[in-house]
């Protein structure tokens, strides 16, 4: 019992070192380590299924889980039983901007034994706490590793179990990469030195062209999505850049500066490098689409100049952005 009580402490220690789709389902297999007072001859295998719902505005994602074990042999008898556990948990995921997503969970459920209940074992509720990680193969498929500690009050005693499991996590329904660049469409007419949506590019460039006697500048947000832990562009992002390249080629007197940003997660030097790569990949594609290189410049500002709080996932998503500055000033 004392050894098993160390498990929740270790679980919380793991979380200290620690894409969003609407739904996740995880079939899993694992192994249950039970304390000796429960009267089973051996630890036993576990199979199960987990279903999780994600909402970016919620701190915890609700999870329904079902665990099942059969042929549990009792000590000092030839009797066996089956065990079914159902639980509801709240899951907190750490946004690490990498292929590895650590998580922690807490909740409770019900344990049912059938048909034989010996050595004081009865159907009873339990509380649980767990931690683990998802290792992503793609944006929506990952290997999920988890350790779960369960404690129940049963027949005037406390019983505990630990389950170590692995499964294939499949995410679906409205997904988007963690490194997506989020922008908000403007609700007013373009103003100087304000960040505007790409769809207003033509009117912005026309406004700049109307006043050639002084240097003017406008900032544009591009709808750009980066894959997790990658600088490559998806097809939707490439289409946005191609559209913007056509606008630039139709307005030859204007130059642009591309600025990449990152949120504050991770080391500052890594965020700086990430922001530079984001800016340069946009620049290189514009060149590929026929925009002369002398009209373009690219810089990265790392986690500086945040436009939202880095405390929440929604705020960090807004800070991971690529901004383009359109000007009639010649590049130096």
Description:
- The chain has 332 residues and is an alpha+beta fold.
- It folds into 2 domains: 2-172, Beta Barrel (Porin), CATH 2.40.160; 179-327, 2-Layer Sandwich (60s Ribosomal Protein L30, Chain: A), CATH 3.30.1330.
- The chain is built from 5 helices and 15 strands.
- It has helices spanning 2-15, 201-209, 235-249, 268-288, 313-319, and strands at 23-34, 44-53, 61-73, 80-93, 100-114, 124-136, 141-154, 157-172, 179-180, 195-197, 217-221, 225-226, 255-260, 296-300, 322-327.
- The strands form 3 sheets. Strands 1-2-3-4-5-6-7-8 form an 8-stranded antiparallel β-barrel. A 5-stranded mixed beta sheet has the order 10-11-15-13-14. A two-stranded antiparallel sheet has the order 9-12.
- The longest helix has 21 residues, at 268-288.
- The model is unreliable at 2-19, 175-195 and 208-215 (pLDDT under 50).
């Amino acid at each position: 019992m004392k050894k098993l009580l160390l498990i929740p402490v270790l679980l919380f220690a793991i979380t200290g070192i620690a894409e969003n789709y609407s739904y996740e389902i995880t079939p899993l297999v694992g192994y249950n380590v039970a304390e000796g007072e429960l009267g089973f001859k051996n630890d036993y295998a576990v199979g199960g299924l987990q279903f999780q719902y994600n909402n970016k505005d919620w701190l915890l994602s609700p999870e329904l889980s079902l665990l099942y074990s059969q042929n549990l042999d009792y000590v000092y008898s030839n009797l066996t039983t089956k065990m079914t556990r159902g639980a509801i948990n709240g899951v907190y995921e750490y946004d690490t901007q990498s292929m590895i997503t650590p998580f922690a969970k807490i909740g409770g459920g019900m344990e049912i034994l059938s048909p034989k209940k010996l050595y004081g074992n009865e159907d009873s509720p339990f509380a649980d706490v767990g931690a683990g990680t998802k290792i992503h193969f793609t944006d929506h498929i990952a290997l999920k590793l988890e350790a779960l500690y369960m404690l129940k009050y049963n027949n005037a005693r406390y019983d505990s179990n630990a389950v170590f499991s692995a499964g294939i996590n499949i995410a679906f329904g409205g997904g988007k990469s963690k490194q997506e660049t989020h922008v908000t469409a403007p609700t007013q007419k373009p103003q100087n030195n304000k960040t505007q949506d790409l769809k207003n590019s033509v009117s912005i460039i026309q406004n700049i062209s109307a006043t050639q006697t002084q240097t003017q500048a406008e900032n544009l947000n591009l709808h750009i999505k980066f894959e997790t832990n990658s600088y490559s562009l998806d097809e939707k992002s490439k289409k946005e850049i191609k559209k913007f390249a056509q606008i630039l080629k139709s307005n030859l007197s204007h130059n642009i500066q591309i600025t990449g940003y990152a949120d504050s997660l991770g080391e500052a030097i890594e965020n700086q490098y990430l922001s530079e790569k984001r800016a340069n990949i946009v620049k290189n594609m514009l060149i590929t689409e026929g925009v002369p290189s002398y009209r373009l410049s690219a810089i990265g500002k790392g986690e500086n100049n945040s436009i939202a709080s880095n405390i929440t996932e929604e705020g960090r998503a807004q800070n991971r952005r690529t901004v383009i500055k359109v000007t009639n000033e010649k590049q130096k």
